[in-house]
Amino acid sequence: MARFNIFLALLIATVFGGLGTVASAQQAAPAGVAYRVNPGDELDVLVWGDERLQRSVRVLPDGTFAFPLVGQVVAAGRLPSELERIITAGLQPQYRGQVPQVTVSVKNPSGFQFSVVGKVRSPGTFTPGRYVNALEALSIAGGTNEFADLGNIRIIRKSGDNLLTIRVRVVDALRGSGGRLNTNDIPQILSGDTLVVP
Q1: Long-range contacts formed by 94-97: CB under 8 A, 24+ apart
Q2: Is pTM, for the whole model, over 0.85?
Q3: How do beta strands 42-47 and 102-108 pair?
Q4: CA torsion sign, 136 to 142 to 143 to 149?
Q5: Quick one: pLDDT at residue 186?
Q6: DSSP H or E stretch at residue 159
Q7: What is the layout of strands, in order, in the sheet containing 55-58?
Q8: Average pLDDT over residues 115-142
Q9: pLDDT digits (tens, 9 = 90+) for 180-191
Q10: Which of 8, 70, 111, 147 has the smallest CB count inside 10 Å?
Q11: Are strands 154-159 and 194-197 parallel, antiparallel or unpaired?
């Protein structure tokens, strides 16, 4: 019976997870919005026509990276397009005319991580490489075990110096009652979140 419940949970997570991702992405990061950079991400920075300034950089734990002729660039929480404008402005004094086009792309989104702890099959820290919601995060952690209290699952989120607790309602989804769910019931996971399954 326990194996059937796990299978059912994973199946429902797969079916409802895709729908939940679209809905919750509209809440936290609307569909089509570019990825925001996190500490630990690897970026490719290209200054067209100047091979000396083409390199891969890793965003440090403090959210910055160093770039030649510009200095320290604060990257955490910014869109790649914002970093392109910052680097272009930093390079402007080095050029007599217009600065060549600067392109910043996320080569490896390894900084987007979350943890799942408690009564799940495979607790740990995960780097999904894409945005996920709480139900998908449970699926990535192997699903809940038979003793999990599905009514009390919480997300612990750091906000400045404070910790926020966000309730997650997966019971309806796991029972197949997805029609009654909204984006507040199964919120989007943000980098640094910890999903707690009591």
Answers
A1: 94/69
A2: no
A3: antiparallel
A4: negative
A5: 86
A6: strand 154-159
A7: 55-58, 42-47, 102-108
A8: 93
A9: 677 778 899 999
A10: 147
A11: antiparallel
